[in-house]
Amino acid sequence: MAVTLTEKAAAHVQNFFAKRGKGVALRLGVRTSGCSGFAYKLEFADAVNPDDHQFESHGVKVVVDPKSLPFLEGTQLDFTREGLNEGFKFSNPNIKDECGCGESFNV
To answer: What is the pLDDT of residues 76-87, one digit of tens each?
Structure first.
């Protein structure tokens, strides 16, 4: 399965890369955190590691490290605006439970 971006998320990432002036990929990962076990990591990568898994979505390269991939397979990343709030939203089919604040998850 792939990790994908919606068109809105891809456009936001491409605009950020243009403003930043560098970057080759969006790096997604997970880290141990929160009350449910895991939290997402999201970074702009200037290089791709040899062991990274690479995906392409709407013209944006997405890279995931091998340890994070089992937790992220099939995930779609969207960029949403609700009132004054905006940010990335993860739609992850692997999640079994989330904490009440939505900052961490369990698989």
So the answer is: 999 998 888 888
Buried b (16+ CB within 10 A) or exposed e, 47-61: eeeeebbebebeebb
Q: How confident is the model at residue 98 (pLDDT cuts 50, 70, 90)?
A: low
Residue 102 CB contacts under 8 Å (≥ 6 apart), including other chains: none
Instruction: Give the separation between CA 63 and CA 66, rounded to whole angstroms.
Output: 10
List the one residue out of 89, 96, 103, 104 whose CA is nearest residue 9.
89
Average pLDDT over residues 35-44: 82
Q: What is the rounded CA–CA span in Å between residue 16 and residue 19?
A: 5
Its pTM stands at 0.83
Q: Which amino acid is at 21?
A: G
